[in-house]
Amino acid sequence: MSTRCQVTLLWGSRHSLRHESCVQMQTSGTATIVACCVALLAVLVSSAVAEPHATGSWRTVGSTAVGHESAGLALLGDGRVLVAGGHALTRGRKWVLIDSAELYDPKTENWQATGALVEKRQGIGSLVVLKDGKVLLAGEHDTLSGAELYDPELGKWSATGKLLTGRGGHTTTLLPNGKVLIAGGIDYSADGTPVFGTAELYDPDKANWGAAGSMAASRFKHAAVLLASGEVLVAGGTSTEPSNDRALASAEIYNPVAGTWRTVDSMAAGRELAKTILLPDGKVFAVGGSTGHVGKRKALASAEVFDPKTGRWTSTGALAEARTQFSMTLLQDGRVLVVGGARPPASALSTAEIYDPTSGTWSEAGAMKTRRWNHRAVLLPNGDVLVVGGCDLLGELTSVELYSPGLRGSEK
Questions:
Q1: Is residue 175 part of a domain?
Q2: pLDDT in tens, 185-239
Q3: Domain that holds residue 26
Q4: Is the peptide bond preceding residue 256 cis, with omega within 30 degrees of 0?
Q5: Residue 408: what pLDDT?
Q6: How many domains are contained in the chain?
């Protein structure tokens, strides 16, 4: 007697129903059952192999004493995490700068206060851990020229050499020679809010700043990444004042040996507040951001990859959700985690996505307990990702969440 068996599976939240059928068999009922079980096992195995990775998991890990929006975050040499500065919302619904700093210990998953900043500041793009283990913080809102160093052993901040030009909205990049490059930015305190194309170098040995040439385009709210060659790629941003800004697509490279800048291929899309990251193969991944006020601040989902060898950008898979003011972290296995962010005019996101450079595709990575943007994230030594602060539609957040990545299908 001819018998046909059909197996239906629901495999994961991101997959539609899959239907697999056993081939017709001229056999007994028992043999048919066995054959269908074998077919079912084959479907399970093939689905597991096709699934690029597990979703991973999210959990909360305590709270900071103060909400840190637009703060600085850095992984210290001993594995602890430093968060510093930012701003908070008062009961009168006014934003105020904060000078507090806190330390997170991954072993105990607890936060504790540490020395306060010398100057209150917000909009901190990055804290830079120098080769001697100290942490550099320079400039930022409200257009400070002051710079300071944090000593993890003493738990204290101290002033260091001032910037040649006070600025905010710039990028900060640690170079292979131990110096630190600051590029671009804006002077929020001056009439007309001038945007800078100039760059500066901090020398830790001399504790001072020196000129580092000028970019072809003045810009702030851009992104920068250190290339494998030791050069620095700067891309996007905007070159006009905040109320009428237009996102840039142009990109430039700084050569620290020659001390010069050169223009390279522009991105396909102009983007401000985007994120860039160096992939394991030496290419640069850029994603998200927004079009600026001229484009009615539309969030972007598109992504591009820059190849330093060819000097060209190529499009790659787009995010499932357009977003800006999110965090992006390179995982230990080479994939890229994007978390939270905003979708203007007023939509905070809790979702996360993972980009796989080998396939150029995205997959879901679960969701945080809390929607947030303007937060910061850092990769911990054990491969987990710590997400700190930011804000939702009501104000700054003290909650902290931890993401543990899943394994790729081949690693299960």
A1: no
A2: 998 877 777 899 999 999 999 999 999 999 999 999 999 999 999 999 999 999 8
A3: 2-50
A4: no
A5: 58
A6: 1
| Stretch 12-36: mean pLDDT | 33
Burial of residue 394, with CB atoms counted within 10 A of its CB: 0-12 exposed, 13-18 middle, 19 or more buried:
exposed
Q: Has residue 44 been placed in a domain?
A: yes
Interatomic CA distance for residues 379 and 386, integer angstroms = 6
Residue 100 has pLDDT above 80, yes or no: yes
Answer for the pair 103, 136: CB distance below 8 angstroms, yes or no: no
- pTM, entire model: 0.84
38 in a structural domain = yes
At 50 the pLDDT is 34
Residue 19 lies in a domain: yes
